Amino acid sequence: MTRYEAVTGPHSPSGADNPPRPSTPRTATSGMPVVAMIGGGQLARMTHQAAIALGQTLRVLSAGSDEPAAQVSADVVLGHHDDLNALRTVATGSNAVTFDHEHVPTEHLETLVAEGVNVQPPPSALIFAQDKLRMRRKLAELGIPIPDFAEVTWVGDVTKFGDDHGWPVVVKSIRGGYDGRGVWMPNDADEAEDIVRRELDRGVPLMVEEKVDLRRELSAMVGRSPFGQGAAWPVVETVQRDGQCAVVIAPAPALDEDTAIDAERMALSLAAELGVVGSMAVELFETNDGRILVNELAMRPHNSGHWTMDGCRTSQFEQHLRAVLDYPLGDTTPLAPVTVMANILGAAEAPTMSMDERLHHLFARMPDAKVHLYGKGERKDRKIGHVNVLGGAGSSADGAYVAAVREKAERAAHWMSHAEWTDGWDPHA
Ligand SMILES: Nc1ncnc2c1ncn2[C@@H]1O[C@H](COP(=O)(O)OP(=O)(O)OP(=O)(O)O)[C@@H](O)[C@H]1O
Ligand SMILES: [Mg+2]
Fold it and tell me: How the protein assembles, per its UniProt entry (predicted)?
């Protein structure tokens, strides 16, 4: 395994025992493309998996050699995403630079573009996934339905918003949030004051928006290439627990066909309008009065697209690579009438039974369950893997059938998290 380290910068791991190595990374000898991904998490790990099939090299910029993608890629640059020199190192000799998260400082990306690096999605598009306030303003300008919102510069902005729109309200950090971290729902002005003062004092820029009366959450995922080709996957339902995605049902059950087509078209035109390149998720709210509002954008593979790994002809990871390299995009046809993805989350206390033994038992009970593990340690509510279960070919996608597939996927994921069958099943009974 060859590893390259960023040779300068505050986060570079070089020291007396670990002298800097040459900063020019290896380029693939095969003549096939090298894609550099910033971030070594599970999204990069699964993109690496797709890159292998396409004969490509996925080089990752990872903060540590134990991160999910750094464990598996043969081409790892150790360094931090806010260190410009680390970014330059990983970009050198690559055909495209892309991301597994949105935390890279925009000005660094603009510097890379000015230096001739092919950054995809470009920072001019990525900014609308990085900055929730800019995203809201842009969507409003484009006439896309969104929750009412306002910028927060002091506590009074939130109390006024709550008094005008009703409590509770939703306060969000404008940058850097994920998995519900950076989202607060104060019930009244007192609660809002505590949160807003604390976060503003910590230097966290905030916005506020109305708490939407949700029927459910949906996601419209698309891929778009620089050539301008777009491809949409079916709209899915996403089930959140504690602000974090837990389950995805594809396609979204009982979603009116016209609404689904409108949402797919909206996501495709938004991708074109913003100049997005790669896979993009448009997180949606379906309201109790039947409206579809946009929550946020993610310009990378996304948890709501993990089902495509087993449930579609082209996965979101392969599509992302095709798009950033400007290949023709792949067919997004589903392979089953319904696919359910359930996240495997770390338990509060890791079970005594090893992960390996849990996998043996799962396979014994459910030979058709497709398991993806990220190589991460078990910590409470941490996403450590996911399970995809496909409905049988030819079966109808009615309510009871979808519920049965969902139950199976959730039972499998719960087993992998807790070493506990939710129906009390005992293999030795
Ligand atoms: N305006 C709102 N009204 C009602 N619920 C909301 C609102 N905004 C956010 N939520 C809930 O909080 C969750 C997390 O919010 P959001 O998607 O904005 O944050 P995030 O931390 O960036 O999420 P992600 O996990 O997608 O990175 C949403 O999926 C939704 O369940
Ligand atoms: Mg979200």
Answer: Homodimer.
Q: Residue 389: its pLDDT value, please? A: 98
Tell me which residue range forms the domain holding 268.
Answer: 214-418
> Rg for the chain (alpha carbons), in Å?
22
Question: Considering the domain boundaries, does residue 338 fall inside one?
Answer: yes
What distance in Å separates the CA atoms of residue 26 and residue 18, rounded to the nearest whole number? Answer: 19
Q: How far apart are CA 27 and CA 33, in angstroms?
A: 9
Residues in the annotated binding site for ATP: 132, 172, 209-212, 217, 295-296
User: Domain total for the chain?
Assistant: 3
Do both 373 and 243 map to the same domain? yes
Both 301 and 397 in a single domain? yes
What is the predicted pLDDT for the residue at 28?
Answer: 54
Q: Which ligand has the shortest distance to the CA of 135?
A: 1
pTM of the shown model:
0.93
Residue with tokens 């058709």: 368
The pLDDT of residue 398: 76
265 with 386, same domain: the answer is yes
Contact criterion met (CB below 8 Å) for 407 and 340: no
Indicate whether 68 and 19 sit together in one domain.
yes
Considering 98, 119, 140, which residue would you say is the last residue of a domain?
119
Q: Give, for ligand 1, the residue of 175, 183, 216, 383 to mutate: max count of ligand atoms closer than 8 Å to Cβ.
A: 183
Query: Does 112 share its domain with 178?
Result: no
pLDDT of amino acid 175: 94
Question: Rounded distance, CA 116 to CA 127, Å?
Answer: 19
Predicted confidence at residue 5, as pLDDT, reads: 35
| 326 neighbors 336 (Cβ within 8 angstroms) | no
By alpha-carbon position, which residue is closest to atom 22 of ligand 1?
178
Q: In this structure, which residue's CA is closest to atom 11 in ligand 1?
A: 243
Same domain, 96 and 74: yes
Angle between helices 355-365 and 399-418 in degrees, nearest 10:
150
Residues in the ligand 1 pocket, defined by CB under 6 Å: 147, 170, 172, 177-183, 209, 211-212, 214, 217, 240, 243-244, 283, 295-296
Judgement on whether residues 83 and 219 belong to the same structural domain of the protein: no
Give per-10-residue mean pLDDT for the chain (429 aa): 33 36 50 97 98 97 98 97 98 98 97 98 98 98 98 97 98 88 96 97 96 98 98 98 95 96 98 98 97 98 98 98 98 97 98 98 98 98 98 73 96 98 88
